Amino acid sequence: MSKFKEFKPTSWSIDNRTSIYILTLFISIAGIFAYINLPKERFPDIVIPTIVVQTVYPGSSPKDIENLITKPIEKKIKSISGVKKLTSQSKQDFSIITVEFNTDIDVAVAKSKVKDEVDKAKADLPSDLKTDPSVLEVNFSDMPILYVNISGNYSLQDLKKYAELAKDKIESLPSITRVDMVGALDREIQVDLDMPKMIAAGITIDDVSRAIQYENMRISGGNIDMENMQRSISVSGEFKNAQQIADVVIRSNTGASLFLKDVATIKNGFKEKESYARLEGKNVITLNIVKRSGENLIQASDDCRDLIEELISNGSYPKGLSVVFTGDQSTQTRTTVHDLINTIIIGFILVTLILMFFMGATNAIFVGLAVPLSCFVAFLIMPTIGFSLNFIVLFSFLLALGIVVDDAIVVIENTHRIYQTENLSIIDSAKKAAGEVFLPVFSGTLTTIAPFIPLAFWQGIVGKFMYFLPVTLIITLLASLLVAYIINPVFAVDFMSKEHPSAESKSDNKKFIKNTRNWAIIIGLSYLIFGFGFGNLMLLFYLLYALHHFWLKRVIDRFQNIHWPKVQNRYSRMVTYTLQGKRSLYVVLGTVGLLFLSFFITAIRKPGVQFFPSA
C-alpha cells in the first residue's frame, strides 16, 4: 500500500512514461495538422433566421402596394410561432417584408413556414399579379469573398467567353458554391413584328408565338432494339440560328401560309443589360465568387487565384486580357489571423519568461508547455463541433494564456518542493505532489470555467456570435488539466534536477555548443518542411535559449537569491504587523468600507453604457 496519497491517473502516466511521450508527440503533430486544416474566417459563420418576402406589382402606388400586397401577406405571417420581429416596406411597384425569427428556430423550418403562409395569402392578392411573391433567406455566407474583373480591348461577347471559362473552372472547386457574372451581355433573338403586314395576312401575335414555340421542340421517338440493346430515339427541332426562326411557317385562321420573315424582322441581338460592372472607368465583366459555408476562406481565395493564374500561364487567356482581383476578404482575414497568432506566441513567451524568474528555467519550460499542448488538444476537438478558426476563437486562446498554466504551476512547484525538502525519489515526489493538490486544482479549474458556462447559452444574434468564446475557453481549460496531471509529471520525473547550479562551468559551455548544433538542424528542417513562419519561430526560441545562457540565467539567479527574498520578508513583516492587536479588525472594516465606497462612487459617476466601445 502506498505511503502517501496518490492520484491514480498521474501515477499510471509516470509508470508508463514512454506511452505518454508517444501520446504527447501524437497530440503535437495531430494538433498542428488540425490547425492547418481548420477553416479560417474573419468572423464566425453564424446563420441569422431572417426571411424576406418580395413581391413585384407593376403600375401600383405605394398606398396600393400596402393595401393589396403587404397587409394580406403580413396578416398570414403574423400567425407563425417563433416570429421575433416583422417589418415591411411598401414602395412604388414593390413590396418587401422582413421576418426575423428567434435564434432557436431552424432557418429551413422558418422558410418553409413563411412559404406556407404566403401560399395561403395568394387568394387575397390581386388576380392580375404576374409573378408570385418570392421567399428568400438572409445568409451572410452568400456574400462574395472575391471579385474577379476581366477587361481588355475585346468585345463584350469575347470577354464573356473568357469569363465563362473562368466561371466553369472556379465553380468546379469543392469550396465554392457559385459564381455570379455581372456586366455580361446575354444573347437574345429579337423578332420585330410588322403590324400592318400581319393585319393584311390575318395573323395574330398568338399565331406567331405558337408557331415559334411548336417548332422549337425536342420530341421523344421511343425506343428501338439494336443488337440486344435498347436505344432511345429523339427528334430535335430546336433552333440553332436566327435564319431557322425566320424560315418558320405560320398559318392563319383563314388557312393562309407564309414565312415568319415575311411579316417580321429577325435580329441576332442581346438582352437589355440589367447589371453593369466598371473598374477604373472602364467596362468590365465581374465574377462574384461565393464560397461554401464552413469552408476555409483563405484556401478558397488562394485556389481561385491559382486557377486564374493557370488560365493566363497556359495560354487560355490572351496577353492583352486584364484580370484584376478586388474585394478579397482573405487579405484582411489572413492579416487578422496572423496578428492574433503572433500575439498568442508573444504572450506564451512572456508567460514563460515570467515563470522563469519564480520557478527557474527548467520548471518554467515544463509549465509553459501547457500552453501549446492545451491549444493542440483544442484544435483536435474543434473540427468535431463545427468550429472554424476566427478572431473570436483566437481571442479566446489569448484570454486563456495566463489561465491554462495555473494547474501546471501548482503541480510542478509542489513536485519541486517535495523533491527538494523530503527524502523521496523524483518518481515518488511527482506522485505525491499530484495526489496532494488534485482536489484544490480541480476545484479551482471548475470555478474558473463556471462563469463561462452561462455565456454558452446566451440568446439572440450576439449570443450566437459570442458562443465560440466560452466553448473554446472551457475546452482549453479542461485540456490544461490533462496536461498538468498526465504529461507534466512525466517531464518532471525525467528532467527535474535536485538543485539548480548557479555558477557557469566549462561543461555548460560545451553543452551549449552541442545544443547549438542541434538547434541549427531543427531550424533548418523547420524552414524546409514547415516554411518561413515556423522556421522563424524556432529561430526565436534558439535566440531566447542563447539569451538565457549568456545573460538571463545570472539575472534570474540574482532575483531568486537577493531580490525575491527581500520582497517575501517585507510581505511577512507587513502581515505580522496587520495581525497584531485590533489591526486585523481595522483591516476588515477598511475593506468593507472600501467596497461600499466603490459602490457610492460608481452611483455618483454613472458610467455610460454602450453595446460596443466607440472607436
In short:
This protein is α+β, with helices and mostly antiparallel strands and 615 residues long. 57% of the residues lie in helices and 15% in strands.
Descriptive account of the structure:
With 615 residues, the chain is α+β, with helices and mostly antiparallel strands. The chain is 57% helix and 15% strand. It is built from 19 helices and 16 strands. The strands form 6 sheets. Strands 2-3-1-4 form a 4-stranded antiparallel beta sheet, with helices on one face. The radius of gyration is 37 Å and the shape is elongated.
Summarize the SSE layout with pairings.
Layout lengths: L7 H8 L1 H21 L12 E7 L5 H16 L5 E9 L2 E8 L5 H15 L12 E4 L8 E6 L4 H16 L4 E7 L4 E7 L1 H7 L3 H11 L2 E9 L2 E8 L5 H5 L2 E3 L5 E3 L4 E7 L7 E2 L2 E2 L1 E7 L5 H17 L8 E5 L2 H31 L1 H8 L1 H12 L9 H31 L4 H24 L10 H7 L1 H28 L10 H24 L2 H47 L4 H23 L10
Antiparallel strand pairs: 1-3, 1-4, 2-3, 5-15, 5-16, 6-15, 7-12, 8-9, 10-11, 13-14
